[in-house]
Each structure stands twice: as C-alpha cells, then as structure tokens.
Hints:
With 729 residues, the chain is an all-alpha fold. It has helices at 3-12, 15-37, 41-57, 64-88, 92-108, 113-128, 137-164, 166-189, 198-225, 236-257, 262-268, 273-298, 309-324, 327-330, 332-357, 388-392, 399-425, 429-434, 439-448, 453-480, 484-500, 506-524, 530-548, 561-588, 600-627, 637-663, 669-682, 703-725.
Amino acid sequence: MDIRAENFVKFFYSSNFFHGTRQATGVLLPVFVMAGLFNQPMIGVALATGALCPAIIDQVGGTKRSRLNEMLGGIVLGQLSGLLTGLASPYPALLWLVVSAQVFFYSMLSVYGRRGGLIGFGCLLQMMLSMHTPLSVDQALMHTSYTAMGGIFYILYSTSISHLFKLREERQTLSAALYATSSYVSTRADFYDTHKNLDDSYRRLIPQMIAMTEQHQSARDVVLRNLPRSNDAGDQQRILLWNVFIDMIALLDTMVASQTDYATLRARFQDHDILLFMRDTLFKISRTLNRTAYSLARNKPVDYRNSVKAELRAMEYELLQLKQEGIQKTEPETYLLLVQIVRRLRNASRFVDRIADNLRGSRLEPVDSLKRDQSLRRFITPQAITLDPFKRNLNLQSSIFRYALRTTFVVTLVLLISTVVSLVYGHSELVRTFTSHSYWIILTVLIIMRPGFALTRQRTIGRLAGTLVGCLVTIALFNLTSNPFILIAIMIPAMVLGNAFVLTNYPLSSALMTVYILIAFHFLSPGNLLIIGERALDTLAGCVLALACASILPWWEKQRIMPLAQDAIAAAHDYIQAVQEYINSVHADPEHKVPSADNERYVQAQLCRKNMHSAFGAFADSFYRMMNEPKSKQIHIKELNTILVQTDAVASQIAAIAPVLAGLDKIPPNMQQTLSNVSDLLNKDAQSITEAPSQIETEGQYGSLVFPLKQMQQAALRIRQQATNIGLL
C-alpha cells in the first residue's frame, strides 16, 4: 500500500477522526432537523449552541463514565452561565461584572487538568454566545431552555454512539498507544546509526517518550476498566485488548532496559556491521508495530508479516567473530553488553510477534502477567474531583491563578475597547459592521491564552496562520461557487476535520473551522463578504492582545521546573527502593517463590515504575517548553539537561537489572553496596552516602550485571553532582 494512502486510512480509523465526526454530527444534526423538517432554523441554531458545550468536552481521552459526568457538569454550569449572561445583557455595567467573574472562575477550572479546562472553555463559549444580543427575561429563559435541550440531545447522541461503537473506541485507544510505541522504537533505532548526531537523537526521543507515556496511560485506563470476565466467544475482543496491552508494556520494558552508553558503543564499533543490524532490527520491529496498530484500529487480521531472524542471526555471527578475535577476554564488559542488547532485541521481537499473533483471528486465552483483580485499579488515573486543588491554587504562587487573572484582564479590556469604539464611532455603518461580532476577539483570547508563555505564543501563531488561510480559502470558494449544496458538502467535512485535527495539528484545525464558520454565516447572511474581513481582523486583534498581555503576571517554566526535576529524581529513588524490596522478598524464601503476579512487592514496583515515567514525562515536557521561552527566562540549561538524560539512564538500567537480580540465588556484597550507593545518591534526605565499591563481582552469571550497574552508578553520581550544584539536593 502506498504510504500516503496508508496514512489516510490510518487517520480515517483514528480516534481523533471518530470523535471529530461524532462532535460535528451531534452539533449540526439539530440545525438540519429543525431547519429542514420544521422550518425553524433559529431554534436549530439555539439547540446547536447548547450542544457545543458538551461537544467541546467530548474529546479524545478519558473513560466513557468520566466523559459523561464531565458533559453533565458542563451542561449544568453552561446553562447557568448562559442564563446569567442573558439576564445581564441589557445592563452593560452588570454584564461586565458577570462576564469578568465567569472568565476568572472558568479559567480556574484548569487546575483539574485538560478535562477541567475543556469544561471551563465550553461554559465560556455558552457565555459568549449569550452576550452579543440583549435579551429580556422571557427571551433569556427561552434561550436557556433551548440550549439545555441541545446539550441533553448531544449527551444522548454521544452516549448512544459510544455504546454502539464501544469496542471500536477501545481498539482505537490501544491502537494509538501502539502507534506511539512504534514511533518510539523507530527513534531508538537512530541511536545505533553512527551517521546521526547522538544529541539530536536524544532530543527527538524525549518528546516521543512523553507522547508514548500519555498514550499508554490512556490505554491502561481503558483496558483495566474493561477487563475480560470470561473466556467465552463474546469476550474474545476484550481478551485480545488485554493480551495486546500486556505484551505492549512488556515490549516497552524491554526497550527501556536496552538503554546503554551509546557514545561508547559508537566509538568502539563505529564501522562495524553489528550496529547496522541493531538499527535495522528496530526499524523492522517499528514497522511491524505500525501495521499491527493499523490492523487493530480497523478490526482486521494482520495482513503484514515481517521477520528479524536474518538480523538476529547476523548479530549472532558478528558476536561469534568478535569472540574469536578475543573481545571476551580483552573487553569482557563490552562483549557482555552486546550479548544483552542482542538478547533484548530477540525478546522485543518475540513480544511484537505475540502482539501480531493476537490479531490472526484464532481463539485467544488471556495472558495472566498480572492478576486481573482490584490491585490493578491502582494503575488507573484517578477521576475524583474535589475542591482542594481549586482552593490550593487561589494565590499568586499558582500558574493557573495568574493565568485566570491575566485572561480576565484581557477580556475586560476587550469589552472596554469595544464599548468605547461603539460609543465614539457608533454612527459609522462600517464600524458597526466590523464590531457586530466583537465576541470573536474574546473567543480568540480564550482559545490561545495559556498559563505558560511558550504555549501562548505557539497557539497565537497557529491560530493567526490558520484563520488567515481559512479566510483566503473561503474567499476563493465563494468566487468559484454559490451553490448551497456544494457549500454544505464542504462545510460539514470542514467541521469534522477541524475537530479531528484540534489536538494534532492546531493551525490546520483553525483553518478548517474558519471555513466552516464563514460558510455558516454565509447562510445566515448571504452575500455579506465583509464578515470574512471581520473574522480576520478580530482574530488578529485577539492574537495581538493575548500576546501583548502574556507578560502580565507571567508564569515562566523556570518557576516550576525545579520541583518537577526534584520529583523525577525522587520517583527514580522510589523505583529502585521498590525494586530492591521486591528482590529481597523473592530471596527471603527461595524454596517457595511466589509468582510475580501474586507478589505485592512486584505490583508495587510496577506502580513505582509507572509513576516514574509520569514524573519524568512532566519534567521533560517542562524542560522543552522552557527551551522555547526567551533566553533570559531560561535557567540551568546544562545541569537540567544532564539530570534529564541521566535520570532516564538510571531508570532504564533499573528496569534492565531487576529481573536478573530477582533470578539470582542472592545478591553479592559489592553489587548490594552499589545498589545502596545509587539509592543514597538519589535520596534527598540521605544523611550519608554509601561508598561505591572499587570492584563488582564478575564471575559466572554476575558478569552481565557489571556494565548496567556501573552505568547506573555513574548516572546517579552525575545527577547528585548537578542537582547539588543547582540546589535540588
């Protein structure tokens, strides 16, 4: 299949497209029904307005239950917002007060994360669509009743679609996690390519790891909340999802554990074929994962087969050649490192084959890598919402509080400017035309303003570029045709695709939504091309105001990156402590070893590993955002980058040695001393540091642990040094 055609089909079967289609049809359906069947287009618009709030909340991510609760909460708050704004609309002073208070309150909902921000934005949209026309009490109540019915309709529609396609949504979520894993594996392949800069490869890998961690958590939430209950044919789909998820996590463990000193490896084997075989193996594994994810999203058997047997055999031959040249005696650690990499690549290939085998169409048995009981609930993202985060953030030390104040100021400023312009130039027909939709400026401000400067600037550029492109496309479209059927045929896909791309390509989403909105206004006011210029000018004004006011009570990443770095180090320390406790529990009773799935210490170690990945992702994300801010606002770049890279190295080596240590009869004294040294180096509260041994046991089965233990100890030492230099430890 042509790669472009494959990408098109991949997008068509993605969760983004599925949700975008559901949002667009749920919002537009009331308009077409009321206008086409009952000749009541304005009532249809009111119903669609009410459907917008839950549609905005109904985004990719989260569980069905959590989304339902969020949409219900959004409807209640949204209708209250629309009613208050509608009642205050005839009184300018009261309207200012009501709007400003709501902007602050709903902006503060971002303390609950992305989902809270969506609820706040949906309610603010309800507010804006109720403020541009003064309403009497009866009109406000009538408008609120229609918008409430529109919101309820959307929830019923969305819930019905989710129920009908529930397994499709779950497959799409897991498919997205597989795609992210494929991209991560492909990027890891670059580390074995001596022609590619190692630092650049690291810079590309970290964002891939962050995206993969987020997708894995979404998949974990979906799979663990919908565990297979039996082995009958009706539950085969859930068994498939469970098995694929377990093998995907096992593959990730293998990939993370294969982290090594690539600089040393490249220097030693720069012109050696063994690195090329390692690179090609990862590329093939990535390709197989990609096609497996593609088949899973389509609910089709895997139609692609790939094998890395040739590469594995070639690496084994190269190892034999190196052994004959004497590397096992002259460089034993390097030789054992190569052996470990080959073994892990073989294991990775085995996990990928098992993932693909689950989609061959045969009857499946559930993989019991972990007990499928209530202990797994600890791995799920908590959904409870309390008032504590809201209250804790009501101070100037909070980035969300500053963001809420800044947004409120900008919105109030827009209201002031539009009022003054209307009073001074209200006699001008042109001015009245260009200020009739001044709430577009407020909408632009609310969309692009973010707590951090870097995100605000990024959204500003994307919004402005997308809107201008959308305006130009719409002008060209109106010059080509005025056929309403053609315009509707373009408007609906524009809205669907605009919603589908909002998370992955914001400029394109903005352009498509601009086309949709301008065509919609064309039907309400045919022949009025000035609205295109108004849209462009209002967006430009909103972008300029938002960017200009981004320096009011600013929040720079340097104000929170230090605690995030500290959290990442602490999470790595907790992980190694949990691993040691697990190993000790295994060694405590060697005659009656408890299976990992039944060992509480093992489950706790896995939980600490998940928390470590989350903490590392938050730290890395903040670091890369800081790099996009002005240089005067950046701090400790060299030290934090070192901590970032070395924390990843420590975590990788912990994952690599844990199963090997657990399989030993006992841990030799010097190895135990090394582990204690690493733990102390990562412990902020350590009163003294256990001295690292001068040598580590190398005889027999201990030899394979020497290199990862040394690398882990050196990485922990560098973390300690850099963290001490900048006051973290």
